[in-house]
Amino acid sequence: MRADRLMALLLLLQQRGRVTAAEVARELEVSERTARRDLDALGMAGVPVYSVQGRGGGWRLVGGARTDLSGLTAGEARALFLVAGPASSVTPAAKAALRKLVRALPEPFREQAEAAAAALVTDPRGWGASQVEPRPPRFLDELQDPVIRGVQVRLGYVDRDGAATGRTVHPLGIVAKGPAWYLVAGTEAGRRTFRIDRVSSVDPTVDPVHRPEDFDLAWSWREIADEVERRRMPVEAHATCAPHGIGVLRMGFGTRLEVGGATIDGRVEVVIRGNDEHKLAGELAGLVDYLEVTGPTGVLGHLAAIGTVLVERYGPQRQGTRTAER
Description:
The protein is an alpha+beta fold. It has 12 helices and 13 strands.
């Protein structure tokens, strides 16, 4: 279960006092079955939550929802909402804080805790690869703090060519993408991403971050990731696939495959990305049992050339010549 969803559920409970599975499902955009499972998980994490049956029922925190806990530190409050890793389970720091959190977050910590909930997105897939657990880079903690507090940072940075630069940025959020971590920030040149393992220094200022009102870290990262994928894989082959071949394509191409709708004859429209027309044609040539490529022209031409070479090398006439030689 995702730690960020668990924290959001806990915040709902302390704010409303009582919630139903339907309300949780609607607020967190999950199924009611998942909502009930999440509510049960709160109890397993040490939070005294109980259910009331019948009319006016739902889930409540034992003793009410408005008592502050003097034992909860600011760091633990942040840990409740900040997912520092692949976000597939609750961190030890968050579990310790959950045991203390019975009814409500202390008022002084609430604003930063809620900011932490929107400060970090984890994307476990590497570029064109399967899930890889990210390793925190050196300056991760130093950058998380100004993201949460909403202050600008003087950033030392070394680009891919080894050139050292310095600039003041508006940190908006942090993303883990496969083994790499990125800072999403506003700059004089617009929104940019910085690999955190290339950061050489972090010097927070007292100046507030200029955060766009409609900014959403998850949505912004999807746009960034899509643009990077388009640059890495600029060639798009369009094709139709037999329904039983979709699984084969998913295994072979992973995130490079986009599955569309069904055609009139029951086949499925697909788009497969690659970085070179000839290489992509080579990958597609062995899938003729499932796939009919419809474009672009360059990929079709390479497929035809590959077919010609295969016939010349392995066709009936060539096989007859080999038999005669024997």
